[in-house]
Specification:
By secondary structure, the protein is an alpha/beta fold. The protein has two domains: 3-277, P-loop containing nucleotide triphosphate hydrolases (Rossmann fold), CATH 3.40.50.300; 286-414 and 471-540, Rossmann fold, CATH 3.40.50.880. The protein has 19 helices and 23 strands. Strands 13-12-14-15-23-22-21-18-19 form a nine-stranded mixed sheet, sandwiched between helices. A hairpin with a 5-residue loop joins strand 22 (496-501) and strand 23. The longest helix has 16 residues, at 525-540. It binds glutamine. The site of glutamine has 10 residues, from strand 19.
Length: 541
């Protein structure tokens, strides 16, 4: 029978609930247990798919095509378990299902209410699709005290009552600030946050205190006393130098032991921290560095390309180099200053994106990478822009464009429905922005003797997609005659999935998002190869 662990957050947001949940999951997994991680998000969007990365950071895509919260990326990277559609729910999804059911007469005349209808739906979600797991860790988004979180907190309170206290555990993560002026560590915000939680009927079993400095005995005692939690269950999480240290630091604080003791379970195996020790040492060790320029639209928000940043770091770990990421706002990249702006950059990456803004800057940067033989990786939108660049500057199709942002040019990139009326993949109208994309895992065949095939060491690959537009396959021979090869194609030969340049050391565009499948303990071959190419280029000059 599964045991449920609920992780809530207090005082401020962005405390690292996702990372803490993922680290705990790793530790329990390493002790021989099967875990599952879930995220319950209190906002009203049905899923984060339509949200700007500025709002909520990256949209993480699962194998089964769900557009989810970026915390699911942490879960996958730390546990290696592929997240599913059923691992992320929002208030919007719950209300949307309830309203649909109500319109269909599904409530048989009853008044539909937050309690029990919304809370029941939340509880159903928590239990859904669980079979042989020993632990289900559910992270509640937002901060205790938010109006939106209330139905979720009420639902987990009820859940614990229904399912039994001995089978459920509450962890509350709070901030314990350090006041420089008085040189003191303050426990009052934590006390208030726990008070708020207890008003709702939830008594935390473990409190994790996030702080800049180690928590002295007196402060721990105070939190234990005022928050009604045993002293040993007040644990600290001091800022780590790299996120890969988190499982080590939680183990040092005995979090996994406390959890197993609570459920009266024994460790089945000795916890193995060696991969994290190794990776932490590699990351922190001084070593040569490479500079990668990420030319995108959401460069100011750190979390906007979370999985991508991580995947590049993983590629660096694999090549024993430090990867410096320079985020460049495509909008500000003017064509006559490209050389100056990209002076210290040895690898160019154009990530996924939507809409017109910054397009021309990206195309100019790609031209620069192509002409000056700078390693280039284009992801999704980045591949589409590489195709447009080549069409304009090499094939001399001056009006080459994408129907995503131009109605008057020649659409090398467009919706499948625009040139293939029987296209099965594109579903729905573009008026509906949510859920109308090619999403999730799709197969691609890789061309023999191509660079991409060498990198993947495989004929067939499966990668995650998230896009509406496609490169028009009808142009294939024109591109290939001039040296831009369609080296990855969908099994039905209709959709270009990978492009690469002949006569260039490393120039690849992929229609999918390889970054979602890169893991620190198992770096993605495409990122490893990209970083290797950049490192080789650095060594040459
Ligand atoms: N906007 C492009 C499309 O929808 C690319 C999307 C992306 O980069 N994820 O096809």
């Amino acid at each position: 029978m599964a045991r449920y662990i609920f992780v809530t957050g207090g005082v401020v947001s962005s405390l690292g609930k996702g990372l803490s949940s993922a680290s705990l999951a790793y530790l329990l997994q390493s002790r021989g247990y099967k875990v599952r991680l879930r995220k319950l998000d209190p906002y009203l969007n049905v899923d984060p798919g339509t949200m700007s990365p500025f709002q909520h950071g990256e949209v993480f895509v699962t194998d089964d095509g769900a557009e989810t919260d970026l915390d699911l990326g942490h879960y996958e990277r730390f546990t290696g378990i592929a997240a599913k559609q059923s691992d992320n729910i929002t208030t919007g999804r719950i209300y949307s299902d309830i309203i649909t059911k109500e319109r269909q007469g599904g409530y048989q005349g009853k008044t539909v209410q937050v309690i029990p209808h919304v809370t029941d739906r939340i509880k159903d979600f928590i239990k859904k699709d669980i079979s042989s797991e020993d632990f289900v860790i559910c992270e509640i988004g937002g901060t205790v005290g938010d109006i939106e979180s209330l139905p979720f907190l009420e639902a987990i309170r009820q859940f614990s009552n229904d399912y039994g206290k001995k089978n459920t555990l509450f962890i509350h993560l709070t901030l314990v600030p350090y006041m420089k002026a008085s040189d003191e560590i303050k426990t009052k915000p934590t006390q208030h946050s726990v008070k708020e939680l207890r008003t709702i009927g939830i008594q935390p079993d473990i409190i994790i205190c996030r702080s800049e400095q180690s928590l002295p005995h007196d402060q721990r005692k105070k939190i234990s006393l005022f928050c009604n939690v045993p002293y040993e269950n007040v644990i600290e999480t001091v800022d780590v130098k790299t996120i890969y240290e988190a499982p080590i630091s939680f183990n040092k604080e005995k979090l996994d032991k406390i959890v197993l003791n609570y459920f009266k379970l024994k460790s089945k195996k000795n916890v193995d921290l060696s991969p994290w020790r190794k990776i932490t040492n590699t990351v922190l060790k001084t070593k040569p560095s490479v500079n990668i320029g990420i030319i995108g639209k959401y460069v100011n928000l750190k979390d906007a390309y979370k999985s991508l940043d991580e995947a590049l770091v993983h590629g660096g770990i694999d090549n024993n180099v430090k990867v410096n990421l320079t985020r460049i706002e495509a909008d500000r990249l003017s064509s006559n200053e490209i050389k100056k702006n990209l002076k210290n950059i040895s690898g160019i990456l154009i990530p996924g994106g939507f809409g017109k803004r910054g397009t021309e800057g990206k195309i100019d940067a790609i031209e620069f990478a192509r002409n000056f033989k700078i390693p280039f990786l284009g992801i999704c939108y980045g591949m589409q822009m590489a195709v447009i660049e080549f069409a304009r500057n090499v094939l001399k199709i001056k009006k080459a464009t994408s129907s995503e942002f131009s109605k008057s040019g020649e659409n090398i990139i467009g919706l499948m429905s625009e040139w293939n009326k029987s296209g099965k993949i594109y579903k729905g109208s573009v008026k509906e922005l949510g859920g109308t994309m090619r999403l999730g895992l799709y197969e691609a065949k890789l061309l023999e003797n191509s660079l991409i095939r060498k990198i993947y060491k495989s004929k067939i690959i499966k990668e995650r997609h998230r896009h509406r537009y496609e490169v028009n396959i009808d142009y294939k021979s024109r591109f290939e005659n001039r040296g831009l090869i369609f080296s990855g194609i969908s099994p039905d030969n209709k959709l270009p999935e990978v492009i690469e340049l002949k006569n260039h050391p490393w120039f690849i565009g992929v229609q999918f998002h390889p970054e979602f499948k890169s893991r620190p303990l198992n770096p993605h071959p495409l990122f490893s190869s990209f970083i290797k190419a950049v490192k080789t280029k650095n060594e040459k000059y």
